[in-house]
Write a structure and sequence with these properties.
Structural class: mainly alpha
Order of helices and strands: HHHHH
Number of strands: 0
Number of helices: 5
Distance between the termini: 55 Å
Strand content: under 5%
Radius of gyration: 19 Å
Number of domains: 1
Shape: globular
Largest sheet: none
Helix content: 40-55%
Length: about 140
């Protein structure tokens, strides 16, 4: 391969990646714009504020010896660890946390919506207030 051809291919690859990257950010921003706002409540903690929400809406499937997607939400340590696909909570950035996008039903893949629509346990989707509380908890450091 000639040097000119190599440089051309390299530059094409670099510029292609550079121009593709903003599309990903735009998609994240679009989803973030649809999210309910974070709660104004200060000092949100897993134990006092988030565990009750998870207990009512999540732990039926995300706890025990065989949690769905290997994601356990019944305790803080496991929730922060994540599951089969990695971390779902990005402390300090709720808008980019997969947990928030999933409970807000803003992912492209409806299989990741939590709780799933028409689930066997008849668990209702989280309310905007509950999502806002989860967002505040994550934005405040997920403690």
């Amino acid at each position: 391969m000639s040097t000119t051809k190599f440089i051309t291919l390299t530059l094409t690859a670099i510029f292609g990646l550079t121009f593709a990257a903003p599309g990903d950010d735009t998609k994240s921003t679009a989803s973030a714009n649809k999210l309910p706002p974070a709660s104004a409540k200060q000092g949100v903690t897993y134990a006092a504020d988030i565990k009750p929400v998870f207990d009512n809406s999540c732990v039926k499937c995300h706890s025990g010896d065989k949690p769905k997607a290997k994601l356990k939400l019944d305790n803080l340590t496991d929730a922060l660890k994540g599951g089969r696909d990695g971390k779902v909570i990005i402390a300090g950035d709720s808008a980019k946390s997969m947990l928030v996008l999933s409970v807000a039903h803003l992912t492209d893949d409806k299989d990741t919506w939590m709780p799933p629509l028409h689930n066997k346990a008849n668990i209702a989707p989280l309310t905007p207030e509950q999502i806002g509380l989860i967002r505040a908890w994550i934005d405040q450091g997920a403690k």
